[in-house]
Amino acid sequence: MKKMLWLSLGLVTLGAQAGEPAKLGWQTSAELGAITTSGNTKGTSVTGKIDAKQELQSWSNEYIASVFFKEDEKTDVNGNRFSEKSAERYFVSGKAGYKLDTDHAKLFVLGSHTEDDFGAYESYSLVSAGYGDRLYQQDNLTIDAEIGPGYYRGRTALDATENGAMLRTAANLEWKVSDYANFRQQISLDASSDNKRTQSETSISAKINGSMQMKAAFLLQHDSEVPLGKKKTDTQTSLTLVYSF
Q1: Using one digit for the tens of pLDDT, what is the confidence trace for 222-243?
Q2: Of 2, 21, 200, 221, which has the maximum CB count within 10 A?
C-alpha cells in the first residue's frame, strides 16, 4: 500500500503535455436507469446521477449528486407477498479547483458525503485538499491525477463512529474510442489508519445523437475494514440513458 501511495505522489509531480484550455461555462449531464424484473424474481432498481462542471477563468468546479435504490418483492411462509428494500444509497460531492496555469495544474478542495442504509458504513463524509495535474495527453486519450491530505468521519453499520486524518489519491482516464464511443476509468483511494476505501467506476458510453448517450458502467467500492457480517466489496452494474446540456 505504501508503494502505491508513493507511486501516486511521484506521478502527479510529472509534467503534463500542454493541451487546449477548457471552454468556459457549464457542462451538465443527467443520467437515469431503471430495471424491473418479474417471474421467479420480482423487484425494481433505480439509479440516477447529475454531474455539473463549471469552468471559470481561474477556477474549475464540479458538483455531483447520485442515488441508487432497490426494492425486492418477496413471499412469506403463508404465501403473502411483501416488498423489502435491499439498497438505498445517496451521494453528494463538490470540488473547487484553482488553476495554476493553462496546462491543467490546479490546487483543489473537495468535500463529499455518502448515506448508505445497507453498506458497511451507513454514513461517510470527507474533506480533502491537494494538487492535481494532467499526466498524459494525446488527441484521443487523457490521464489526470490528484493527491492530498484530508479528514474523514464515518459511522459503521454497528453504529460505531470513526474519524481521523487520511491521504486521498485519485486518477481519471478518458479515451475517445471513436466519434460515437467513449471509455472512462475513475479510481480513488482514501487511506487512513482505520480503513482504506477504494472506489472505481469503469464505463463506456455510446452517442445516440448530439445530446443523448447510452452508458454502461461497473462500480466497485472496497473497504479494508468492515463490521462483522458485512462484505468488504460492493459492486453495481448499470445501464443508463445520459442527457448532456
Answers
A1: 999 999 889 999 998 899 999 9
A2: 221
In a domain? residue 32: no
Residue 177 forms part of a structural domain: yes
Enumerate residues 6+ apart whose C-beta is below 8 A from 161. Answer: 153, 154, 155
- Nearest residue to 71 (alpha-carbon basis) of 36, 23, 99: 36
d(Cα 171, Cα 86) in Å, to the nearest integer?
Answer: 31
Question: At 202, which CATH number?
Answer: 2.40.160
pLDDT digits (tens, 9 = 90+) for 149-161: 999 999 999 999 9
Task: For residue 16, give the nearest of 78, 100, 105, 81 by alpha carbon.
Answer: 105
**Domain annotation covers residue 87:** yes
Q: How far apart are CA 168 and CA 150, in angstroms?
A: 7
Q: What residues make up the domain containing 157?
A: 2-26+53-63+74-244
User: How many CB atoms neighbour CB 78 within 10 A?
Assistant: 5
The whole-angstrom separation of Cα 2 and Cα 23 is 37
Question: Residue 34: its pLDDT value, please?
Answer: 85
Residue 229 inside a domain? The answer is: yes
Three-class SS of residue 17? coil
The total of structural domains in the chain comes to 1
Higher-confidence position of 83 and 181:
181
